[in-house]
Every structure is written in structure tokens, then in C-alpha cells.
User: Which sequence fits this backbone?
């Protein structure tokens, strides 16, 4: 693997949890400025791949890299924003304000033992403004709607001003209108601000709208190409349980 040019990469990665093989020889390379959608059925290894890319899971075989360095030598975590799966499912009584959640995104810069500086507060406020919820800064995180809460976690991921964003099923369980706003926002982060993005999602219209490239996973990479080709290829999108809208131009087409 040419580690230098690799923003995010996996080479021949195999991950086993006991008798379960979650990833089997997976290779993936994300280039600077790309917006890649990662899809696959439940249990196909998407979250494991994201976590392995970030060095949170140690592969049994193969290696990963981040921002041009092998993952075990990568240290500049402020360059990476990560929204884990189910981040939004917080206890309604969780005693943190929206601003405090965004501030947690500054930990890579500050370390947990140091006090927040004015610069941290300004960055956290700016991140909340960037995702359109600056006015909710003082609200308790548990009182927000699903869509607002997801924006708060996106703000946390953006608070360190990263170059790279990994979003693991960020819009699961959120209503359609909030989903569309969120994807427009993420699309803008890629197109207007040049962030490299890896998005795990079951939402094919969103993936089609935003992503340059779609990677389908089922322990192995079974497709890597344009979202439109994925849709057209032998009912793959149905097999992957994607939300495929009815196309008027395909009336009576596919089952
Ligand atoms: P996805 O995100 O595509 O739903 P996951 O990466 O979460 O898939 O899981 C892939 C497989 O690995 C599943 O069979 C899951 O049950 C298993 N798995 C994931 N995490 C663990 C873990 N910490 N311990 C044991 N098995 C796990
Ligand atoms: Mg998952």
C-alpha cells in the first residue's frame, strides 16, 4: 500500500470475533476529497470496517492507514471526525448541554485533563453554527429531536476542524425531512469545504445524491463503483435492503 497518498485505506483486512469472520480480505482506498458510501446488510461488517480503519479494532490480518500513515503510527486525531453508530441514542436525562457535546470534539486537541480554552468554546460554537443548531447550544442534549441530536454529534465531529469524516449510519431512525436536510449538509461539507467522507448508510437515494462512489460489503467487498451502476446491477440494491424509491421512469420495471 502506498501509505503516503492514502487518506483512508484497508489492505487485505480480515477481522474475526471468535468463530465469526466479520471481514474477509477487505481492501479499500479512499482518496482525498472523495465521498464514499458504504452499504451492506446488517452484520456485513460495515461498523467493523470503520472501526478497523480508525484503529479501534485490530485486524487479524492486513493493515489500515489514515491520512498517509499506517494506523498504529497515526496520532493527529484532530484531523478525523467520527460519528459512531447509535451515537444519538443518549439517555434523555444525560446531563450535558449541546455545547458540551460539541466541546468533546476538542478532546484530541486539548486532552481530557486540561480545561477548555476560549478557543475550544469558539470552535465548538462555530461547529454548532456550521450544522445549523447554534441556537440550541444551551439546551440539554436529551431534549433534542433525533435530527437535531444527530447534528449535535456531527458538530462534535467537526469541532476539531477535521479533513476526514466517518459517519456510521447517522440517520437511522430519523424522519425523512430531517434526513434530507442532514444529507444536504453533509454533501455541502464535501463539495464546498472539501472534506473527505466515508458514509455508512442504508439510504440509497441519499447515497446516490451525495456519494461519488459506493462500496457494498458482505464480509468481502462485493461492489465498488458508481451508485447508479450498483442500482442497475442485478437487483443488488434489493438484496442489500436499501430504501429504493419507485422511479416513474421505471414503472413496472423491477419487482
Ligand atoms: P454491520 O455494521 O454491517 O451491521 P458489524 O461490523 O457490526 O456489522 O458486525 C459484523 C459481524 O461481527 C456481526 O456478525 C456481528 O455480530 C459481529 N460482531 C461485531 N462486533 C462484535 C463484537 N464486539 N464481538 C463479537 N462479535 C461482533
Ligand atoms: Mg453497523
Assistant:
Amino acid at each position: 500500500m502506498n501509505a503516503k497518498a492514502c487518506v483512508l485505506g484497508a489492505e487485505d483486512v480480515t477481522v474475526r470475533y471468535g468463530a465469526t469472520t466479520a471481514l474477509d480480505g477487505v481492501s479499500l482506498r479512499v482518496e482525498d476529497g472523495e465521498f464514499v458510501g458504504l452499504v451492506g446488510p446488517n452484520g456485513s461488517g460495515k461498523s467493523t470496517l470503520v472501526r478497523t480503519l480508525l484503529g479501534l479494532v485490530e485486524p487479524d490480518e492486513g493493515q489500515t492507514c489514515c491520512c498517509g500513515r499506517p494506523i498504529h503510527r497515526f496520532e493527529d486525531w484532530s484531523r478525523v471526525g467520527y460519528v459512531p453508530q447509535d451515537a444519538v441514542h443518549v439517555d434523555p436525562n444525560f446531563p450535558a448541554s449541546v455545547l458540551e457535546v460539541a466541546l468533546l470534539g476538542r478532546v484530541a486537541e486539548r486532552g481530557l485533563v486540561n480545561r477548555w480554552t476560549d478557543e475550544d468554546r469558539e470552535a465548538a460554537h462555530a461547529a454548532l453554527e456550521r450544522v445549523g443548531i447554534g441556537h440550541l447550544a444551551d439546551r440539554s442534549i436529551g431534549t433534542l429531536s433525533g435530527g437535531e441530536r444527530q447534528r449535535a454529534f456531527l458538530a462534535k465531529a467537526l469541532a476539531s476542524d477535521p479533513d476526514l469524516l466517518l459517519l456510521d449510519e447517522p440517520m437511522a431512525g430519523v424522519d425523512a425531512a430531517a434526513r434530507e436536510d442532514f444529507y444536504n449538509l453533509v454533501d455541502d461539507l464535501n463539495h464546498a469545504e472539501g472534506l473527505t467522507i466515508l458514509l455508512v448508510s442504508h439510504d440509497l437515494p441519499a447515497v446516490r445524491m451525495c456519494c461519488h462512489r459506493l462500496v457494498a460489503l458482505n464480509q468481502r467487498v462485493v461492489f465498488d463503483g458508481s451508485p447508479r451502476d450498483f442500482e442497475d446491477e442485478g437487483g443488488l440494491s434489493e438484496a442489500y435492503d436499501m430504501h429504493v424509491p419507485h422511479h416513474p421512469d421505471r414503472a413496472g420495471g423491477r419487482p
